[in-house]
Design brief:
It is a single chain. By secondary structure, the chain is an alpha+beta fold. The chain has three domains: 109 residues, no CATH class; 105 residues, no CATH class; 42 residues, no CATH class. It is 50% helix and 19% strand. The protein contains 16 helices and nine strands. The strands form four sheets. It has a three-stranded antiparallel β-sheet. It starts with a helix and ends with a helix.
């Protein structure tokens, strides 16, 4: 009896997951959920989410519940979903469903640097929070005891734009006088990306397409999580960032991009050749039924990114 119940629940979940985002978000109970959080602004927010989904074919094919959970998290944090605004984004990603063991497209929630800035300032404890890249010649000296760096900024923007970037720094000061900075060299940021992102190691994804933005977000997130007083909102943002959200209410998340890859074999090499031959997303999607390990999923993601 219990197995039958589980099977029915799995079938229902699978049916929901295959719904089109537009149809899913048009349901009265879904609208009510957003209205409870955002009030009159809920309709405009849902419209912006659907616009982002419609503009991204990969996201449009993603598990609709993962899109919904990411959108709900953004609503709870009151951060607009629009990559161009730089507050938060919903990113498509392919991963394995732990329950069904099937490969599927899912939505990953990401908070950007401006999003962390927004959440920090709302707490009412920050006097200032900012981040910037650091150019060659702008580091004056480093205090080996505190780790803080004194900078001498190039004032001429035209000259500065021609200088190579050597690192990134985030800084905050609180109303009580406490202040802290976090500097990471370009190599340190790359090492961080290599450690925590499989897609970066394979040469695609947000870390490759928007390295500067991800670097600024990283120095800011690490600074806040280590040294800043974290509000409930900020704690939720740190947990949810770069995850597939299974349940926004319980903060049940999965960090798909950090799962280890399996060793290559002949079958994977054959799949790689098939992927390379695909000249359109439609052709590539025909290979989805053959994805049965992390390496194939990674190859699939890489080619999707190239064809997008």
């Amino acid at each position: 009896m219990e197995k039958q119940k589980t099977a029915v629940q799995a079938a229902q979940t699978n049916q929901v997951a295959k719904q089109k985002p537009k149809d899913f978000f048009a349901q009265d109970n879904v609208k009510q959920k957003f209205a409870e959080i955002m009030g009159k602004r809920s309709t405009a927010f849902m419209t912006s989410v659907l616009q982002c989904v419609a503009q991204n074919q990969l996201l449009a094919n993603a598990n609709v519940n993962s899109i919904y959970q990411s959108a709900m998290m953004a609503a709870v944090l009151d951060l607009p979903i629009n990559p161009n605004l730089g507050f938060a984004a919903i990113i498509p990603y392919k991963t394995k469903n732990k329950e069904t063991q099937q490969w599927e497209d899912v939505a990953q929630f990401q908070v950007m640097a401006k999003g962390f800035n927004q959440l920090a300032m709302r707490s009412g404890q920050f006097k200032k929070l900012s981040q910037t890249d650091v150019r060659e010649g702008e580091i004056k000296k480093r205090d080996r005891l505190t780790g803080d760096i004194e900078f001498q900024w190039e004032e001429d923007d035209a000259i500065r734009a021609k200088l190579p970037i050597i690192g990134y720094v985030a800084y905050f000061s609180l109303l009580n006088g406490f202040e802290k900075q976090n500097y990471m060299s370009v190599q340190e940021v790359k090492d961080h990306a290599t450690r925590y992102s499989q897609t970066y190691k394979k040469g695609y994804g947000n870390w490759v397409d928007s390295f500067d933005a991800m670097a600024l977000k990283t120095v800011t997130k690490l600074l806040l999580s280590k040294w800043a007083p974290l509000s409930v909102e900020m704690q939720s943002a740190v947990i949810a960032d770069q995850s597939v959200i299974n349940n926004h209410e319980t903060q049940d998340v999965t960090y798909s991009d950090v799962e280890p890859l399996q060793i290559e074999n002949k079958e994977n090499e054959r799949f790689a050749l098939l992927v390379e031959d695909c000249k359109s997303v439609a052709e590539l999607e025909k290979l989805q039924p053959h994805i049965d390990n992390d390496v194939k999923a990674d190859l699939y993601n890489q080619q999707l990114n190239a064809l997008q």
